[in-house]
Amino acid sequence: MYARCPECLSSQQVRSKRLRKKQGIIICSDCAHKFNALASLRDTPHPQKAAQSHHTDTPYPWQKSSAPQHTVWFIGSLFGLMILLFQIHYFMGYPLAQNSQIRPWLQYFNKTLNYPLPPYHNLNEFTAIGSSLQNTRNNTYHLRASFINHAPFAQPLPQLQLTLRNLQGGILAQRIFKPQEYLSPTKPKNTLIQHNATLDIDLMLVLPPTPIGGYEVTLK
Fold this sequence. Notes:
Elements: E1 2-4, E2 11-13, H1 16-22, E3 25-27, E4 34-36, H2 69-97, H3 103-113, E5 126-137, E6 140-149, E7 155-156, E8 160-165, E9 171-177, H4 179-182, E10 192-193, E11 198-206, E12 214-219
Antiparallel strand pairs: 1-2, 3-4, 5-6, 6-11, 7-10, 8-9, 8-12
């Protein structure tokens, strides 16, 4: 004989001897609920009934499935991070690329992403080794100058400014030479100077027939 547990609705097989001994009161083998088996006693097993649920796995046609909250949060966080990185690149990209401590990290990531960095440029890390201005004949002068790049990175070649002064110390003439103008014709037109590299400048200049009291060579 079979009885149904009113708590979990499971069908329980019982013997008549046990029912007489317990006076019809038995304990459910599934949920341990004590109940009167005589109220649901029958010869065949009771059909299994699933517990009612307020949720269904199959949505109605008018219901829209929504993504799990953690997926939405991840997508939103990723989008916000991309906006933040774009703002940093747009407003602070160049200053960060000129920072000698941050630039090695940027070089690593940019090499991985195959995205070029702006050239490193710091005139304070150029050191002038020496210069000379000699009158060779008439108004032709021979200018020699050398400088070294002490930066830990390659830098674009600087512009060279030559200032001529008269006998009273005032400015007689001034000119700025671009790298393409002061590089030797026999050397390749490389616009970068490597770390700890030295560049020698050798120029022939024709100057006005005015006495020169001094000169200055500065990098721009």
